[in-house]
Structure to design on (355 residues):
């Protein structure tokens, strides 16, 4: 019988060498043998069916792999109730041009079998992480597991040293803009998200991530099962790093589009640069409305989330005027990410649709 190495099997089956070794150890590859510290695999062996998808997709839901300001977990059920009629049946495409943490996306991936899905966001590091989870999840898991094993046993003071060293490395790799470092950059992005204060992503005027370390006792830095599930579900998803207008050529009358742009600040003191160096102003909100009007003319089904200015000023009709020709619902939501506890709690948000 002729044999191949785990590395050769990994290249043949388009999976990681680490995954091949796991399959061998689980006796999932017939006649695989250990020689010293190396697995030998029959050359005619077939790639085992991935039992992880059969086991986990039946009993587990995928969830966002990062915490994100404005995440929709708190109002996900309400958003689902406002999906357009025919979604998943006559409406076979989905676009999310401000994907953020992806709570709505992952709910759709778990429950709908669509023909085409496109997601986009202007945050380069976030979208790089989505791409790496899709294309290089095993390598990503290896790095995250290493960081988790190094970080958790440390004292508080040593954790701070470790955290700020990783933050500095993250900002260095951001500036380097080298594709060869994309997996490392994604691992650092997720590590910082899991260990920074309140899960915020905030940058300074030069684009440097500047959030301090949080005080979590035992953060789950590497949720390997969830990452594997997400990776499988993202395989046929088009991932774009760019402005929401990049979705123009994708969207047609067969598309449901969910817009979750940076929310309009409820007051002058609540605005901060949380996502990237660019602030989303009232002018940007108006430009987005013009874009939505164009998509409406294409007969795409559109749903938009935003803050309700009337939380702060009953006379503020900014969105009521901007989307006067659309259906506007006011729903109750929880604001969970705020530097002050007094800034958290129940508020009204808007769901705006053309159906």
């Amino acid at each position: 019988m002729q044999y191949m190495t785990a590395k050769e099997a990994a290249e043949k089956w388009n999976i990681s060498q680490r995954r091949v070794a796991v399959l061998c150890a689980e006796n999932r590859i017939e006649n695989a043998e250990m020689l010293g510290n190396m697995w030998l695999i029959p050359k005619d062996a077939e790639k085992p069916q991935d039992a992880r998808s059969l086991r986990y997709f039946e009993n587990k839901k995928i969830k966002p792999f990062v915490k994100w300001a404005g995440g929709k977990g708190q109002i996900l059920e309400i958003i689902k109730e406002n999906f357009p009629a025919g979604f998943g049946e006559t409406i076979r495409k989905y676009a999310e041009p401000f994907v953020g943490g992806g709570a709505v996306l992952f709910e759709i991936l778990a429950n709908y079998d669509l023909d085409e899905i496109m997601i986009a966001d202007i945050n380069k590091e976030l979208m790089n992480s989505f791409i790496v989870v899709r294309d290089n999840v095993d390598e990503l898991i290896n790095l995250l597991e290493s960081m988790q094993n190094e970080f958790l046993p440390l004292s508080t003071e040593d954790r701070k040293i470790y955290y700020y060293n990783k933050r500095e490395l993250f900002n260095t790799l951001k500036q380097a803009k080298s594709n060869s470092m994309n997996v490392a950059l994604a691992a650092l992005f997720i590590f910082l998200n899991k260990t920074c204060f309140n899960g915020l992503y905030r940058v300074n005027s030069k684009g440097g991530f500047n959030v301090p370390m949080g005080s979590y006792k035992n953060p789950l830095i590497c949720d390997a099962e969830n990452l594997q599930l997400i990776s499988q579900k993202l395989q046929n998803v088009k991932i774009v790093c760019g402005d929401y207008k990049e979705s123009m050529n994708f969207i047609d009358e067969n598309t449901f589009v969910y817009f979750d742009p940076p929310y309009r600040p409820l007051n002058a003191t609540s605005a901060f640069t949380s996502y990237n160096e660019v602030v989303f102003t009232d002018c940007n909100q108006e430009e987005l409305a013009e874009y939505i009007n164009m998509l409406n003319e294409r007969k795409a089904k559109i749903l938009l989330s935003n803050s309700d200015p009337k939380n702060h000023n009953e006379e503020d009709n900014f969105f009521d005027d901007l989307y006067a020709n659309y259906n506007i619902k006011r729903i109750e939501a929880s604001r969970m990410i705020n530097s002050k506890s007094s800034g958290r709690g129940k508020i009204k948000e808007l769901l705006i649709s053309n159906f």
User: Anything to note?
Assistant: The first strand starts at residue 3 and ends at 5. The two ends are 64 Å apart (CA to CA). The CA atoms of residues 76 and 104 lie 7 Å apart.
